[in-house]
Amino acid sequence: MKTNRLDSRKLSTAFSLFPSGKTCSVWTIPVEFDETWTPDNAEQLASSGIKVRRVLVEPRSETVDEAVAMARDIDAALDRVFVRAPRLHHGVGSATWAVLDAAVPIGREIRIGLEDVLTLPDGRRAPDNAALVVETVLRYA
Prior knowledge:
The protein is α/β, with parallel strands linked by helices. It has one domain: Alpha-Beta Barrel (TIM Barrel), CATH 3.20.20. It has helices at residues 39-48, 64-80, 96-103, 129-140; strands spanning 14-16, 23-25, 31-36, 52-57, 87-89, 109-110.
């Protein structure tokens, strides 16, 4: 996967991270770094000099084993480059619940919503965001 390099000259207004070249506006300092999809992104963050208050870890795979491994690799890369900001893990599609299952025991923050997954852990379609949140609270509380 090709990633864009962070351009420190543009950090006051935006930074480019996404493989597609999209930009994310930065309105608050310290910044929430959104999204960390690969270990390379973690290394780019560290070399950019951006001070972040939280890093979103979002493996972009719907394959369970691959997504969990990618989240673990992103965490390891963040550790290697001394990014100590809290990490919020979330997944995409069918890998979402596995990513959360792996994140909670190691003390990571998690996020859930219809933008991440449309189904409950048992495969039933979630009727709304509230159902996903309730399931998450029951599962991890």
